[in-house]
Amino acid sequence: MSDYDVIIIGGGPAGLNAAQVLARARRRVAVIDGGNPRNAPAEGVHGFVSRDGTPPGELLAIGRSEVEGYGGEVLDGVVRAVRHDRTVELADGRLLGAKRLLVTTGLTDELPDLPGVRDLWAIDVHHCPYCHGWEVRDQRIGVLGTSPNSAHQAELLREWSDDVVFFSHENPPDADALARLSARGVKVITGAVSRLSTEEHRLRGVELADGTVVERDTVFVAPKFVPKDRILVNLGCAHGKDGLVEVDSFGRTSVSWVWAAGNVVDLRAQVITAAGDGARAAIGIHADLVGAGE
Asked: Which part of the chain is the FAD/NAD(P)-binding domain (predicted)?
């Protein structure tokens, strides 16, 4: 069995940034990654100074190279279980031991169950105005009412286009929200949406239940964010009232040797935020190891 100071489960921005910090601190660290990043379909990363527009796969490749350049290890694999004796078991049977564990497994986007949404995800269907608003500026934007936050999403997107339509669908705005949308110049269309109308794998418009198609160039939806926290749950890490695993300011969970960072504990974290969370967790873990004389 291979032993490490820190094992990091999840090789996204949070995990790789944590690994770089720990490797530079001369800790023996391994990152285990299953190779299924959440933002893989996106053309580029945004909101990350000096890396704006970098394809997600390229960003991760740079991160892996940096970690390995400082002596850290990046292992391709899937974690089957983490035992309370601090043994990490991989699906291929490998066993790894760790003094500390950092979980950076991220989240899953559960998309609205409407025909066309998944097919056009990250092409003409998006969810984050700050990640994709600039790329669709001045286009005909639609927002589907798939969440209580969808009306606010439509308000925000008015900054990027003069032509924003809010399709109430399953979440009609209340009087206050309707007044705000009207003040922002957002058109509201009530009633259910049946599907996204497509042509040659591009969006043509939003089709209503009565068959009417409202032409749109791009559509924003609000997925349900589901943290990939199975490992943390199985280890008995406490959850807060928001349903997320609780962590302190450095990412430490209620299980003393387990930390968590990134989207698995912060559903709104963007790439740069997750990377910062990883660095903060790494500093906390290193300080904890030093304090314990390890």
From this structure: 4-276
126-160 in b/e burial notation, b at 16+ Cβ within 10 A? bbbbebbbeebeeebbbbbbbbeebbbbbbbbbeb
Specify the pLDDT at position 40. 86
Domain ends where: 198, 220, 242? 220
Specify the pTM: 0.95
Q: How many domains does the chain have?
A: 2
Looking at the DSSP assignment, which residues form a beta bridge with residue 208? 193
Q: Does 228 lie in the same domain as 103? A: yes
Q: Are 170 and 99 in contact (CB under 8 A)?
A: no
Tens of pLDDT, residue by residue over 221-251, are: 999 999 999 999 999 999 999 999 999 999 9
In the predicted structure, residue 42 carries a pLDDT above the cut 80: yes
Distance CA 259, CA 280 (A): 11
- For position 17, which CATH number holds? 3.50.50.60
Same domain, 102 and 16: yes
